[in-house]
Amino acid sequence: MGRAAVLTGIGSAVPDRVVTNDAFAARMDTSDEWIRSRTGIRERRLVEPGTATSDLAVLAGSRAMKSAGVADVDAVVLATTTPDHPCPATAPTVASRLGLGAVAAYDVAAVCSGFLYGLASAAGMIALGTAERVLVIAAEAFSTIIDPDDRATAPIFGDGAGAVVLAAGEQSQRGALLGFDLGSDGALADLIIVPAGGSRMKTGASPSDHFFTMRGQAVFKHAVLRMAESSRTVLARTGWPVDAVDWLVGHQANVRILRAVADQLGLPREKAFVNVERFGNTAAASIPIALDDAVAAGLVNPGDRVLLTAFGGGASWGAVTLEWPDPA
Ligand code: ACO
User: What metabolic or biological pathway is this protein involved in (predicted)?
Assistant: First the structure.
């Protein structure tokens, strides 16, 4: 690895509209008790009709740049499952609306693992010398692909965006991304899928073909297994024993998954940061939203050793390590 990618700023943005579990219980056969006990979720933020992924991405991106104390970057990488349009990518729109000029801008599609794939991609550009500074955003208007009447998915997901600025620096600096592990298994592609709208099936036989479906139990098992495995791999690459980790900031899919990953790693459960209760599963956006939330709450502090890990559609997964940086 050449030059290190150093995290120098972070920001997030969620829609104002809070939707409680009771709002779902009022319109479908579910309950606050079921949703809380199975997922840990109490409420989530959902966009109003007309709000798109880029709207959230611009807000989170500008907050991350402000936190980093910078007015420009050389590239924008946007991880999303819900681009504004099937074509073109959403990142150039975001870059333009942020006033960043003619910078490189592209989307990364790895569903809930997208932020970690985005970090790796941005770190690669920095290592190559293609960019000095990259804005990595993960943003989702996830509710736009959810069937609002499907109790198996509608209460689980939320909308939001998180972003970080990565800058060229030294591996020894706080904030340097230290280790990466990424993986996928396309044989599991049908566990999490929107069947129609792509080149395989342009228009579905029924409207439900255009909505997100998930085989929850199978996803649960693979998520725990792969997040734990990927975490072990990245810890070994970083040279950290498990007990060196101060915070596990995992993809906020389900509090039971986060606890199970901590248990499998032999990490005390209180080291697994959880905010799924307030935001639901925001897919690619969940890790940067959680990180920003944990820092704002005074939990993650400069010098803390942080382990990020995610599992999502594809199937795809990953893990990244870093020591939390000093504020800009
Ligand atoms: N309210 C009430 N009952 C429900 C609801 C609901 N909202 N949803 C499902 N049920 C019912 C089911 O129909 C089933 O009923 P049955 O026993 O009569 O068949 C029962 O509850 C149990 O369903 P399970 O799916 O077995 O419930 P489980 O405990 O597995 O929880 C959940 C479901 C929350 C989806 C869980 O499996 C999970 O979190 N999976 C992982 C999700 C995940 O990690 N996603 C990350 C990737 S997502 C991405 O990449 C975009």
Answer: Lipid metabolism; fatty acid biosynthesis
Query: How do residues 172-208 score in pLDDT, each as one tens digit?
Result: 999 999 999 999 999 999 999 999 999 999 999 999 9
39 lines ligand 1 (CB under 6 A): yes
Instruction: Identify whether the C-beta of residue 4 lies closer than 8 Å to the C-beta of residue 176.
Output: yes
Please state, as a whole number, how many other Cβ atoms lie within 10 Å of the Cβ of residue 325: 22
Q: Residue 1: its pLDDT value, please?
A: 54
Assigned CATH topology for domain 3-170 = Peroxisomal Thiolase; Chain A, domain 1 (3.40.47)
**Tokens representing 51?**
């709000």
Note the CATH number of domain 177-323.
3.40.47.10
35 CA distance to ligand 1 middle (Å): 9
Overall size of the chain counted in residues: 328
pTM over 0.85: yes
Backbone angles phi, psi at 281, to 5 degrees: -90, 110
* Structure token digits, residue 119: 């970090």
- Contact between 163 and 91 under an 8 Å Cβ cutoff? The reply is no
Residue 80, CA distances (Å) to 54, 83, 140, 312 in order: 10, 6, 6, 12
CB 168 within 8 A of CB 145: no
